[in-house]
Design brief:
Number of strands: 9
Largest sheet: 5 strands, antiparallel
Helix content: 10-25%
Shape: globular
Order of helices and strands: HEEEHEEHEEHHEE
Structural class: alpha+beta
Strand content: 35-45%
Radius of gyration: 21 Å
Length: 181
């Protein structure tokens, strides 16, 4: 019995190593408030397209781990949107690596990547979309993850239908990365 205990630890370490597990890796969750809840930074638009830039360069977690990021495991959003009209509002989010001058639906379709589809806000109502909800609406996940490795994206909200009038009083980007030496 004593011999079995002595052999158990090396055998366990061998199994873990053979399975490809990296004991020096850890997951880190990075959040960046683009529009801070409860602040005066609310974004209102009656245009069907609005853009925000997201740059993680000043985030302390990003600074600490950016050189050791092995992968982006998840990227999503936390949103609070209020529809200021009585008609339902629907929309999508697109992203690009660089800002797009004078974006239109046609230009975004050709120069940006759809990343979230199916946003819906009933008339005169606020909707909160949490991180998990955003993952359920996410499309082109691989491209989003690749772009998030750079720490910088430009996000375009596109409202469908007219007229369109919403207020965004929370917009947080959440990125889960694996870091290791």
């Amino acid at each position: 019995m004593r011999l079995a205990r002595i052999l158990a630890l090396p055998l366990l370490l061998f199994v873990v190593a053979a399975a490809g597990c990296d004991l020096a890796s850890v997951q880190v969750r990075i959040t960046e408030d683009v529009v801070t809840p409860g602040s005066n930074e609310q974004h209102s638009t009656d245009s069907n397209i609005a853009m925000v830039g997201v740059d993680l360069a000043d985030d302390s977690d990003w600074k600490e781990h950016k050189d050791n990021i092995k992968s982006v495991d998840a990227a999503g959003f936390v949103l609070r949107i209020h529809n200021n009209r009585s008609e339902a509002a629907t929309g999508r989010l697109y992203m690009s690596a660089n800002p797009i001058a004078n974006p239109s639906l046609t230009i975004l379709a050709n120069q940006a990547t759809l990343i979230l589809d199916g946003l819906a806000v009933p008339g005169n109502t606020s909707v909160e979309l949490d991180f998990e909800d955003s993952l359920a609406l996410e499309v082109n996940r691989t491209l989003l993850h690749e772009q998030m490795l750079t720490g910088k994206i430009f996000v375009y909200g596109v409202g469908e239908g007219a007229p369109f009038d919403v207020t965004i009083d929370q917009f947080t980007v959440v990125v889960v990365v694996t870091v290791g030496s």
